[in-house]
Amino acid sequence: MSATVDEPRAPEAAVPVDDELPDAPRPRRRLARRIAFGVLALLVLLVVAAGWLAFRGYQAGTALLSAKDVVLDLRGDVGGGDTQQLEARLPEVQADLAAARSATADPVWRAAEHLPWVGANLEAVRVVSWSLDDVVRDAVPAIGRIDAVLHAQEARGTDGRIDLAPLVDAAPDIVAAAASAHAAQAAVAAIDTDALVGRLAGPVVQLQDGLSQVTGALDAGAQVASLLPPMLGADGPRTYLLVSLNSAELRSAGGIVGAFAVLRADDGNVDLTEQRTTLDLPGIESSILPLSAEELRIDTDRLGRWVQNAVLTPDFPRSAELLAARWERDIGSQVDGVIATDPVAVSYLLGATGAVTEPGGVQIDASNVLQVLLRDAYLTYGDDADSGDRFYTGVAATIFQAVGSGQGDSRAVVDALARAGAEGRLRMWSAHPAEQERLVSTSVGAAFLTGPFPDATGLFLNDGTAGKLGYFLSTAVTVEDLRCTGPDPMATVRLDLSYSPPAEVESFPRYVTGWSGTDLPVGWLATNITVYSPVGAPLDAIGLGDGFVLGGSAEAGGRDVKVVTSWLAPGASETYRVDVPVRDGRVTVWTTPTLTSPGMVTATCP
What we know:
The longest helix is centred in the N-terminal third of the chain and has 55 residues, at 26-80. The chain has 3 domains: 38-231, no CATH class; 238-437, Aminopeptidase (3-Layer(aba) Sandwich), CATH 3.40.630; 453-604, Sandwich (Immunoglobulin-like), CATH 2.60.40. The protein has helices at residues 26-80, 84-104, 107-112, 118-150, 165-189, 198-231, 293-299, 302-305, 316-330, 343-353, 369-381, 385-404, 410-422, 433-439, 510-513, and strands at residues 238-246, 256-266, 269-277, 337-341, 356-357, 363-364, 426-430, 457-463, 473-483, 490-499, 525-532, 542-544, 547-549, 552-556, 559-568, 573-581, 586-591, 600-604. Helix content is 44%, strand content 20%. It has a 6-stranded mixed sheet, covered by helices on one side. The protein is α+β, with helices and mostly antiparallel strands.
C-alpha cells in the first residue's frame, strides 16, 4: 500500500468578535471597552450612593423629627426653670441627635453637599443635626442648675440670707452652656432658608427662632450666676442706691425719680440702711457732671441739675452716674451701684409676697398698689409734697422687708424680678467696670445709647405737665405694616395715647394737675415724645393721625432724634406713627415702660 499525503488547505477567514470592529486598531478597541466599563461602574456607584444617601437621609430625618419637639420645648423649660420633664426625656433625645449626627457625618453625605440644589438641603440637615446635638450634649445638662440660680431665694436660711455657694458653683457650667448655645444658634441662623425645599425650610425657621430664645434664657442664667454673688457681697460688702421711679410723671426710664433707699449687701445678706426723698437732694445751679452738646440739646441741663430728671435720658448708665455723683456730693457716701424700679415692678413683687401693711395702716397688694401710690396718695396729701414722698418711702420699705423676710412664694419673687427686668422696669448699673461691661449688653443694663444695640429704635415719653396725671394715661407701642422685602425693608412704629382722668380732674391739687409754666389748661396732659432712629438711619417726619407733626431735631450717638409734644384734653386720644428700617429681619423698639405697656417691643419677619 502506498502512503497518501494530505493536500494543503486554504486558511479560514477569522470570525469577528461582537465587540470588535474588523478595521479598528487594537488600542482604540481597548479604550472603548474601558469607557464602557467605566460608565457602567459609575452608574452602579451612583445608584449605590443614592441609595445609601437616601438611607442616611431617612436616618437623619427620623432622628431629627423625633428630637425637634423636645428641643423646641427648651424655650419654655429654660426660661421657666421647669427641668424635670426635660431631664426625663434627655436620654431619648440624645440618642436621636447622635444618630442624626452620625448619619450626616458620612463621607457620601459630605460629598453630596457640593451638588447643585440638593447640596444646600443636605448641608442644612447636617448643620441642624450637629448644632442641636451640641446644645443637648453641652447646654442641657446645665439647665438643671439654672433652676437653682434663677430661684436662689429658696437657698435662704432662716435669717433671710441667700446662700451664695450654689450660685458660685453653678456659674462656670452655665456660662459654658450659654457659649455652646450661642455657637449652635449662630450656625443654624446662617442657613439660607430660601435655598431649601419647603418641607425643610419651615422646621429650620422654627429652630432658628427656638434656639434664639434658648440662647437668651441661657444668657440670663449665665449673667445671674456670674454677677449675683459678687453683687450680693460674696467678695466683700457692697452698697447700692435703690431708686424708686414714679410713673405718675413719666420720664424715659419709666417715671420721675421719687425716693431713694440704701441697700447694704454682705455675703448674701441684704439690709435697708437709709431712706431719703428728693427733698434731701434739691436742685443745683449747674450740672453735677459735664453734659455733652447732644445731651444739652435733647434734655437740657435739667438732666444734671435735678435728681428727679436724671432719668430723662434713655441711657440708664448715664442716669446712674449722675445719681451716684449727686448722692456722693449731698449725702457724702459712695455707692457700688444704682438700682431703679417702677411701680409696676412693685406690683409684680406684691403678687408674689401677698398683701403688706404700710406704717400708716394702709393694706396694699398687687391689685391696689398702683392706685394707692399714684392716685390716692396725691389726693390725700395734696400739695404737701414732703408727706407724700415720705408715704412713698414707707411703702417701699414695707415691701422690701416683706421680700427680705421671705414672705409669700419665694420662687414667684424671682420670677417677678425676671419679668420686671425683661419689661425694662428693673434697671441696674455697677460702679465696678468688669460687672458693668456685662450689664451693659442686657435689658437690665438699659444702655440704649451706649450698649450694643445699634439696630434698635427708641420711642420715649417724658411728662411736660410737671404734675402727676400720668396715672390716667394709657399708652401702647406696636409695630405695624412690617415690610420685609425689597431693597429697603421698612416697618411702621405706632404709638397710641389715651387720656381718661375723672370728670373732676380740674379740682385736683395743683401738685397733681401740674406747673408746666405754659398756657396748658388745668386738667390737660402734655407729653414729650422723643424718637431715636437706629444708628446710621435717617428719620422721617412723625405722623399724627392723617398728617404730620413738626418738632425739634437733633443727633445722638449716630442716631437721628426728633422730639414732638402731645397735648391731650381729658377724654382725648392720639395716634403717632414713624417709619423705621427693618434690619436682619427684625424691628426692636425700646420705649418707656408705663402703667399699660412694657419697655420693649419686637416684631420679626416671617
